[in-house]
């Protein structure tokens, strides 16, 4: 399992864009994790699935609400990663009003999630392999804080916890 001090694993996440800009065409665009995190401070949070209750009611809204504070604490970008396709993540982004604040990145085949070792097996509940709920503070591709939730919990991966860590980290 990934830990503080590790580099993010190589991989590609997918992001749905509704408008062209900054080298992104309309539609799903590949995001190379290592290139996209190079030279930046990233607040990354991951969760089991788009449109699920805790994820939609608490997790994503918390990061949208703390956007300005996270930026002021030195965070360049906020990423939300979920084992969903880019189209679902794009629809969820519209629903959650994340545009310009949180990048909604799909890990459709769970390759990135498997590479981090933060897999949640929800096969018995009809959801297959998903991401565990967690947050990370990443500096230039290296994990400087990791907050991994216990099963069914939402206590340490919230925006307020990561904001506190960003504010006290040497970024």
What does this structure look like?
- The chain is of the alpha+beta class and 171 residues long.
- The protein has a single domain (12-168), classed as Glutaredoxin.
- The protein has helices spanning 33-37, 53-65, 67-72, 86-96, 111-116, 159-168, and strands at residues 12-17, 27-32, 41-47, 77-82, 102-106, 119-122, 128-131, 134-139, 142-148.
- The strands form two sheets. It has a seven-stranded mixed β-sheet with strand order 2-1-5-4-3-8-9.
- A hairpin with a 2-residue loop joins strand 8 and strand 9 (142-148).
- 42% of the residues are buried.
- The model has no long low-confidence stretch (mean pLDDT 92).
Sum up the structure in keywords:
7-stranded mixed sheet; 171 residues; 30% helix; alpha+beta; Glutaredoxin; 9 strands
- What form results from the Cα inertia axes? globular
What is the distance, rounded to the nearest whole angstrom, between the alpha carbons of the first and last residues?
24 Å
Give the tally of β-strands: 9
Tell me the series of helices and strands, N- to C-terminal: EEHEHHEHEHEEEEH
């Amino acid at each position: 399992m990934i830990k503080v001090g590790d580099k993010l694993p190589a991989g590609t996440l997918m992001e749905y864009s509704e408008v062209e800009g900054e080298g992104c065409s309309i539609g799903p665009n590949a995001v190379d994790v290592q290139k996209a995190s190079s030279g930046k401070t990233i607040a990354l949070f991951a969760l089991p699935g788009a449109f699920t209750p805790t994820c939609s009611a608490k997790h994503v809204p918390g990061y949208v609400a703390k956007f300005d504070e996270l930026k002021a604490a030195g965070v360049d970008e906020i990423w939300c990663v979920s084992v969903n396709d880019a189209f679902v993540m794009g629809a969820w982004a519209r629903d959650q009003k994340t545009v310009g604040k949180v990048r909604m990145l799909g890990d459709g085949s769970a390759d990135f999630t498997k590479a981090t070792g933060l897999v949640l097996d929800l096969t018995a509940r009809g959801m297959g392999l998903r991401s565990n709920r967690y947050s990370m503070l990443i500096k230039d591709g290296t994990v400087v804080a990791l907050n991994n939730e216990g099963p069914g919990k939402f206590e340490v991966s919230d925006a307020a916890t990561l904001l506190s860590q960003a504010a006290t980290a040497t970024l």
